[in-house]
Amino acid sequence: MAMEMTGQEAEGSAPLADPPQVEPTTNTVLMRLREMIVTGQIPPETRLRAEGLATELAVSRTPIRSALAVLSAEGLVDYSVNRGYTVRAVTISDIFDAIEVRARLEGQAARLSIELGWEPGALDQLAKLARRGRAILEQGDWSEAAEVEWYRLNHAFHRAIQYASENTVLRNAIKMTLIYPVLGDPARLCPSVAAAVPLRFRQLSATPPAHLLASQADHERIIDAFRRDDAALAEMIMTEHVLATKRRLHAIATRR
């Protein structure tokens, strides 16, 4: 049965923090390094030294080395005996490929969560996250702070479903596909995407953007499928929900 979220998780006060007893420090370091690389905070061809990164992230060198090994397997960094780890440029094609894979995996997580069965309390908490997302969009005015908060709730929503699948291998596989920012629009925040997108599509709008309104509606449809115990429908909606990001980016990008 799907486990209930804690009150803190339901409120979304720390939606990015994985339970320490489940996720080791390495995963936190991995997510941070991945985000720094994808958003350009660490430029391509930068040599990644465990000692310096450990100091910057205030952790020991052990989780840094483990995270670098994973990033190498993901293709975000290259390794050579002479140079060690260096950052590889993330292309827009890499982003598209990652979204394609993630869509299938998240669809599977949605299906598995129904097959295992949702506890009423856990599903109510998931619905609460969706309601909070809806409330942000219905405020009308849009800002960077509103966007960040909506994306935080979005991340918490997806993560709750992934945990409800009770499949650690699947959850870890999904993490490996998150090679673009989850707390904002990759068209603006991911350099490899932004470089291919005209400025007019990268400007923050004054009102909630259409793609987030559509995404919010998808969340509500997914919850409805959960309540109806319709695993096939939930899988289909979730898969198409994730693929919508690829379709939008592909439509506005002038170079692939």
TrEMBL record:
Keyword DNA-binding applies: yes
SMART domains the record matches: FCD, HTH_GNTR
Keywords in alphabetical order: DNA-binding, Transcription, Transcription regulation
Residues in HTH gntR-type domain copies: 23-90
Lineage top rank: taxon: Bacteria
Stored InterPro entries: GntR_C, TF_FadR/GntR_C, Tscrpt_reg_HTH_GntR, WH-like_DNA-bd_sf, WH_DNA-bd_sf
Keyword check for Manganese: no
Molecular function per GO: DNA binding; DNA-binding transcription factor activity
Pfam families in the cross-refs: FCD, GntR
Chain spans, region Disordered: 1-23
PANTHER family the record matches: HTH-TYPE TRANSCRIPTIONAL REGULATOR LGOR-RELATED, TRANSCRIPTIONAL REGULATOR, GNTR FAMILY
Protein name stated in the entry: Transcriptional regulator, GntR family
Organism, scientific name: Caulobacter segnis (strain ATCC 21756 / DSM 7131 / JCM 7823 / NBRC 15250 / LMG 17158 / TK0059) (Mycoplana segnis)
